[in-house]
Amino acid sequence: MRILHTSDWHLGRSFHRVNLLDAQAAFLDHLVTTVRERDVDAVLVAGDVYDRAVPPLAAVELFDRALHRLAAAGVPTVMISGNHDSARRLGVGAGLIDRAGIHLRTDPAGCATPVVLSDAHGDVAFYGLPYLEPALVREEFKTAGAGHEAVVGAAMERIRADLAERPAGTRSVVLAHAFVAGGEPSDSERDITVGGVASVPAGVFDGVDYVALGHLHGCQAVTGRVRYSGSPLAYSFSEADHRKTVWLIDLGPGGEVEGERIDCPVPRRVARIRGRLEELVEDPALARHEESWIEATLTDPVRPPEPMARLSARFPHTVSLVFAPERAPEDPLASYAQRLKGRDDQQIAEDFVAHVRGGSGPDDRERTLLQSVLDDVRVDTALAQDGVRGAAR
């Protein structure tokens, strides 16, 4: 069976205030064309269809057109909700849409009810595991722990139990939206850390033939059977070196997996350039970036006059300007952003406590309290996205 695995469309997202709807429409055109030309048997969309819980109307219309075109192509499509989507809103009408071959899986309680498709070698069971916010689903899965590994592990136990009841030789595919250990993140994924831990081990998915992951924006294989498709477009400058693709997966009669990367259309390349202003506007080696979206980091010791105007004269698509003056590491004026770089919310909060106490950081009780508050803020945000009122803990 030939499967096209994609994810993280983030319909409605912009790139530094540049509207990407036309680029997203071009990707969906490419997707439908690939489905037809490469004889795809099933399309998988592993979450983050939209960029936010309440997407703009133009993004909803684009999604609607894509669904109609996939249904018209006669190729079944399985989709799950991601951490950017509102599971409730995305899942509206799922029962009716199911009849058209578009299978929306947004309810965690239904994770062990697969979409079963067949080819010349028998059945393939596709299980949709939407993004699981631990604090919101731990009651459903009756887990002792409240972290990602606990809830994803419990969901996978249900899936393996269902699979065990199916005819021998049934192949299996799981769609999941999660941060799997070994994956390489970028700056554009929303933090899903719970209790200081964001990732789940790849071994939690043992027992199935292929795992189609979403969440991380770089196309990558965690193992031969556990893969991220990545986002079809660059959504941050940290993705400047990404090759944007989808996976074309051939699932053999015994569950063998062969994968091919199919390149996505590139509306405009993204690039980071760094140096003093005069160097950037004169360096001939930078000519290859003149039509790219640009993030320019200026290292001039003193901020030069009209830097954006001068950069834009050569690089008309400069959308981000960063100042990082060349200073000695011990300089007290060193960038605050540089001091925070690579540090998560918990570390920043603990550093602040140490700062206001003259160097004495939080004790274990205070550290646990800080983490609990940070987790509560994230959960409340998730509840608000789905229009839920009241705490679920």
Question: How would you sum up this structure, described in words?
Answer:
- The protein is α/β, with parallel strands linked by helices and 393 residues long.
- It has 3 domains: 2-263, Metallo-dependent phosphatases (Purple Acid Phosphatase, chain A, domain 2, 4-Layer Sandwich), CATH 3.60.21; 270-326; 334-393, no CATH class.
- Helix content is 31%, strand content 22%.
- Strands 6-5-4-1-15-16 form a 6-stranded mixed sheet.
- The longest helix is centred in the C-terminal third of the chain and has 22 residues, at 364-385.
- Belongs to the SbcD family.
Summarize, please.
The protein is of the alpha/beta class and 393 residues long. The protein has helices at 21-37, 57-73, 87-90, 94-98, 134-141, 148-164, 277-282, 307-314, 336-340, 345-356, 364-385, and strands at 2-6, 14-15, 18-19, 42-46, 77-80, 102-105, 115-119, 122-129, 171-177, 179-180, 199-200, 210-214, 220-221, 226-228, 245-251, 257-263, 270-275, 293-298, 318-323. Strands 6-5-4-1-15-16 form a 6-stranded mixed β-sheet.
